[in-house]
């Protein structure tokens, strides 16, 4: 058993971390930090945890030393308090955007502020097990990527790694409302957000910078909020290299992911769920990936789906923890998702 | 053409008033008062009105004298400024809760504050055309009832008026999220409210007091927020007087509403939409009413459905205006609703 | 390890049984019977089970003898094949409506057909652990109750058992679309059912007969389909006996359920989720129960929420299996539900 | 007053035609043809039309000669009966896919069947007022385009017409469930379709062929079903010609659409609804168009939104009728849409 703390525990990612960590057989949750609700019951904010925990939220100062800390604060809050947490826990898993880009200039362009701890940027290992498993095995600082970045990266990586596509991708990302967080504003009221197809970032979404970083391709993302609470789907449009056919694409995905515990290839000829669909992944740590090829034009579409709070956040972080600790990678992450849901 | 102003014009009821009044052939909207957005474009807040109006929001002071004013402020704000509006417009249509109850003690019990203008309570005619059409024909002060009250009243009135039921009703009301208004708090974020069945008033909802007032029955309401933006449905449970059968119930509804422009009897043997369903009434001024009788026990269930922002608010107010002005009652209110929607 | 079969495995309850039984550490799924899809992959119909199973659907004849069989066929199919299954498995868990009522006349009134196996009606123990745990410990024939019946029964039982209310309840039940099953007709198309408040049974819903049976009260149910895929909520309206106050009600619920693994008392003064809400229970086996009292009138409202496919079906059946086998009651049922969802 | 008939009147497009034509001041609906429901009341299938019509469905043979006929049958049924309707009505408005492409080979590639009336293909004028208004003024045969084609075409046309972009576009289209029609199958059950992000055509959607035809660009469409009943949104990704900047793009849209009654430019710096959003267009005939430019890369995204049953179908057809008859173009089409909804 290790002792862990969650900082930003009243948010949606924080709550999902608590759900997974409280249910994890090798973990004891020693602290749930919330600056808004110190002293209040955790299950008052996260009612799904009733009967699972009697924990109260606490302040950052009240956290006793623990083995690992998970940061799920708002963006920009993590980089200013990172030094402090590094001194108090052996491992730090950062789920904010603050350490996802390794170049401070790119960070500033996408986040609009100067980075507060550029000296640490190089020390964080990206929390993408499928690309960085070896480094994660010994990493003490992990930066868990953005939800749409995970989806985009995993659906393109097998092709990029084998040089099967031109190094350029247009990514159409769709996301549910939980991605806006528990303190979102009036634009996220149910009456405004319900049934929406809200193009909130036609160009320049931050997560495109992560995709470019990890894959070395020119990535351009358009992001739209659609009706769902949880769920992210990305469609990546790319062009096959001359001579590359559908069989090569299929082979690439199979080879890459056949032993991955949480990536499934979903690209079938028929069936309602023949392509990746977030709706059946709620609560699960899977990222389903698929593709379609237009043989005539060499046009390729890859599709990925995940639950933004799990494989796009808290679950991915726990998977990284499992890797770091040498535990089975799916420990505490075995929920399959629901159908129908 | 008459000149009208809408106060509280940035809210959901205010926006619906603007939509209906801008489209009304005999009305010119002379002012749209918003304390939050003075000087801003109306269609910035109500984007459905793009190309329909170039109006800007203004302050209350900027409203020039007009023939009629519609108040859609938060509850409690209307009663403190009522004297002022009475002096500036020939007719005042109040869509808040402030003048819906004629007894200041009942008001205080249900609203938790003392009434600020008890001397005016008796001067307001309730804005329910189906019950008070004659008085509305000459009324200069109209209090438009609560959305769930309209539904409950219209689905019980034919039976109460003919003394067909025991004077007691349990009302189960369901409502969409727009009823919480455009400035609702965190509990109404999409992620929290989506797919909800939220019992927000198991006992003592304010609208039950209106039903009791208009029908003279003991009314007990339970209110639940369900997944919808617009839409109210009430189920009223009552007991038939001895000897009253289903034929008498049907006859009562038919007699009562056969000439009503906006009340339809919906109680069929089969069909997906055999009972009143708010989903097909979005944007329309209809209140559909129906019933079912358990012949063995004498148990009666009446069902009503409406769009809370139209027949449950702005549309009802415009209907009252039409009556007052002697115009056709459905002027500007002819939209039928959509199917599917 | 015991071997089990699921009959009607391509339906929604069948799929949920498979999800829970495949994940159950003491169970091996030996057969998934579907008359529609024999020979097809189970995860083609239930895509959430991809990577969890390679099972194919089979015919009833292909099922080899197994320890327990779970019947999730359409209503009326179970009673005609029950004798056969009794001969082939030690335990039979029936999730259809066929053995939920012990009186063949009441069955005929509510189901519209004569019972095909009235000799067996008395042999089935109702699958409600909270009321019949002792009998379930040795039961070889279990009839799992209707989803809305479970909710209604659990939210009234503590009060009925202590004689705190008049023996009469009006139940307002709301349900998601999954209750209509995987082969529902055109009325359940998304375009028709989305955002609906569909009163499909204003009087006489079958589940009221189960509530009457288990509690000995006169139960009258009105059932409405609301927007949700999973989820049932019941509101029960009853009257407190003279002299009974809120404290007595609270005490009754506490005493009754303090040691129950899957019933939680949710009745708080404030908070978005202060009353039972199905939305946070998706995938979980909890039934949350709560209440509100109108002290002045003695009016009582009890509220219950559950996932109709889990505590209202498959999860409840697995809980009964656990009891019968002497396993920990929550084995394979530990999923907490999600927030937000 | 002219007399019109609707064929395929029980479908969703057929129902929307009836709604608009019944409310049209210059039109009398003389026949509502349905092969499934002859003799049944129209408002039994389209419950929003209760009290608006007493019409019964009839067979095709029962339609008396009328001035105009609107065909909203399933695809492929129109081309086999077209000769017949041409002989019986002065104008034919075809809302199926059968006459949207003028090249029979392209038709066969996209629809998978040989065209049954290739001799008529050249006689149909495309029902896109914004491109073909002059020809529509005298057209007796009009083919109303696909919903996603309208959106795509209108959001690219100003740029193509001025040669501001490279002749290639990748279109990401999202659609609500009503696009699947009133007789959709099990995959469109609410439980399966609710909350979905269903990629049903990753490549090769039929509507891309229409966009290519009307604009002369290479169009590649990916189509996804998202949670909504009504509503289509298209995102078109293209590349600006060298030297073209955002100002030129804005000018192109303004010039093109400033006098169009049903196209609005929506591309604002801020606001929840700063880009086209179908949610506020339900029931309206608007197509909102907008754009975003990435100045650094010359990447362009255009965005369009409409109600697939109105501007994407029935409303567009009525607009074409108005043009043909010389009536005001917005006659019977003045509904603004709702907010919130």
Automatic annotation (TrEMBL), chains A, B, C, D:
Q: Which CDD domains match?
A: AGPR_1_C_LysY (cd23939)
The UniProt catalytic activity note for this protein reads: N-acetyl-L-glutamate 5-semialdehyde + phosphate + NADP(+) = N-acetyl-L-glutamyl 5-phosphate + NADPH + H(+)
Q: Which UniProt keywords apply?
A: Amino-acid biosynthesis, Arginine biosynthesis, Cytoplasm, NADP, Oxidoreductase
User: Gene3D superfamilies of this UniProt entry?
Assistant: Dihydrodipicolinate Reductase, domain 2 (3.30.360.10), NAD(P)-binding Rossmann-like Domain (3.40.50.720)
Q: Which residues form the active site?
A: 147
The yes or no answer to whether the keyword Metal-binding is present is: no
Pathway note: Amino-acid biosynthesis; L-arginine biosynthesis; N(2)-acetyl-L-ornithine from L-glutamate: step 3/4
InterPro entries this protein is in? AGPR (IPR050085), AGPR_dimerisation_dom (IPR058924), AGPR_type-1 (IPR000706), NAD(P)-bd_dom_sf (IPR036291), Semialdehyde_DH_NAD-bd (IPR000534)
Residue ranges annotated for the Semialdehyde dehydrogenase NAD-binding domain, each copy included: 3-139
The cross-references to HAMAP family, in alphabetical order and at most eight, read: ArgC_type1
Per its UniProt record, what PANTHER family does this chain match?
Answer: [LYSW]-L-2-AMINOADIPATE_[LYSW]-L-GLUTAMATE PHOSPHATE REDUCTASE-RELATED, N-ACETYL-GAMMA-GLUTAMYL-PHOSPHATE REDUCTASE, CHLOROPLASTIC-RELATED-RELATED
Task of the protein: Catalyzes the NADPH-dependent reduction of N-acetyl-5-glutamyl phosphate to yield N-acetyl-L-glutamate 5-semialdehyde.
This protein's name? N-acetyl-gamma-glutamyl-phosphate reductase
Give the originating organism.
Streptomyces roseoviridis
């Amino acid at each position: 058993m290790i002792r862990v703390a969650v900082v930003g525990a009243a948010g949606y990612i924080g709550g999902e971390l608590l759900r997974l960590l409280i249910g994890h057989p090798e973990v004891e949750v020693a602290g749930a930090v919330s600056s808004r609700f110190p002293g209040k019951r955790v299950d008052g904010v996260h009612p799904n945890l009733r009967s699972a925990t009697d924990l109260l939220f606490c302040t950052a100062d009240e956290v006793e030393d623990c083995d690992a800390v998970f940061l799920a604060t708002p963006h920009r809050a993590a980089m200013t308090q990172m030094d402090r947490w590094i001194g108090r826990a052996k491992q730090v898993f950062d789920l904010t955007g603050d350490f996802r880009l390794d170049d401070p200039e790119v960070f500033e362009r996408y986040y609009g502020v100067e980075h507060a701890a550029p000296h640490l940027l190089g020390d964080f290992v990206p929390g993408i097990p499928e690309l960085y498993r070896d480094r994660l095995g010994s990493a003490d600082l992990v930066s868990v990527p953005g939800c749409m970045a995970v989806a985009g990266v995993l659906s393109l990586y097998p092709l990029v790694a084998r040089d099967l596509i031109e190094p350029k991708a247009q990514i159409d990302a769709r996301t549910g409302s939980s991605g806006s967080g528990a303190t979102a504003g009036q634009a996220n009221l149910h009456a405004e957000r319900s049934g929406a197809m809200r193009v909130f970032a036609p160009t320049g979404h931050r997560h495109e910078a992560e995709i470019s970083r990890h894959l070395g391709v020119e990535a351009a993302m358009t992001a739209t909020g659609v009706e769902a609470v949880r769920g992210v789907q990305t469609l990546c449009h790319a062009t096959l290299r001359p001579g590359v056919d559908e069989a090569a694409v299929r082979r690439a995905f199979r080879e890459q992911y056949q032993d991955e515990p949480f990536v499934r290839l979903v690209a079938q000829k028929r069936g309602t769920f023949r392509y990746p669909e977030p709706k059946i992944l709620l609560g699960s740590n899977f990222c389903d990936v698929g593709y379609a090829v237009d043989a005539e034009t060499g046009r390729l579409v890859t599709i990925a789906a995940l639950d933004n709070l799990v494989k796009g956040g808290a679950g991915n972080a726990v998977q990284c923890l499992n890797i770091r600790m040498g535990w089975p990678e799916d420990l505490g992450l075995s929920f399959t998702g629901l159908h129908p849901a």
